[in-house]
Please model this.
Amino acid sequence: MPRASWKGFLRLSLVSCPVYLTPATTRAKAIRLNRVWVPSEDADEQTGPEPEPARSAAQASRMPQVSDDAEPDQPEPTYTGPATRVALRPHDPQTGEEIDREDVMKGYEYQRGQFVTFTADELKALDVESSRIIDLSTFVPRADIGPVYFSTPYYVYPDGPIAAEAFRVIGQALADAGMAGIGTITLSRRERMVMVEPRGAGLVLITLRAAEEVRAAGFDDVAGEVDAEAVAIAEIIIKRRAGVFEPTTFRDRYQDALHALVEAKLKGRKIQAPVAVKSPPPLDLMAALKRSLADMDTAPSAPPKRQRRAKSDRRQANLLLPVAGKAPKPAGKPDTAREPAPTRKRA
Model:
């Protein structure tokens, strides 16, 4: 379990519960590209030839292997040797002279080129007092909070066995009422509005954006009458593609392509640019909807309805009408039908 990033109390009126927060999300392991500088060949000629440094076996394996009989149209191998990472350092933009980081201050530009500066002590005095209490002062239906206000989620855990009972009571009460609690919390010297809601046997806290951080929607120009037939076709397509939310099936195609590009360059392979996908010609709305529905009907994954009905006979045997004629005998079985016994004559 991740270590606690915040510790304090969750308060419901006069009931206080010691809790701690852990981040509910993490950053994916993406390939990060750095700014590097590789000396050019011209610079090597001016400074004179230098002895090539000895490479380790790992570095030698990463260098591209070029054969003498390489094809003329084959591109030159990509450089995969040592490089210097470029460091961004503060400097005077006019003279280019480097400035010590201790001399760099924070300032606010109130006019173009005019700043008011602040010391670290002045800014520290403005820190909001951290009360270490999440006071749930308001309760609203969960559906009333738009997702555009969601910022960062955290898992809430009871801090110690004594807090477990109060923790379960607060969570069960929120679940039974169908409400989410609204309160405030101080994180990283900033007071934030939060929402606390039940999630399984625990609680989830989500920091909320302030009203000035959310832009107003401009949907007024979109309002108008809707074609009922188009809506019905679109609803059929939506219902046929209904499924469950599976976040594990998502793949970042850019990161996958970047990873393949790195592997290709390390192995010295020829890199082919992907073929640009041309956008299909635009269709009118009704034609596009009908074509989408037709493509779903002819999909190979969904067999035709006639074939599925022919596989099994769901008719009830006791409702079938008799047909004249003899039924065919089962193959491989002898005829065990007995002849009718002769009638006795009366004396």
User: Anything to note?
Assistant: The longest helix spans residues 164-177. The first strand starts at residue 6 and ends at 12. The chain is about 25% helix and 20% strand. The mean pLDDT is 76.
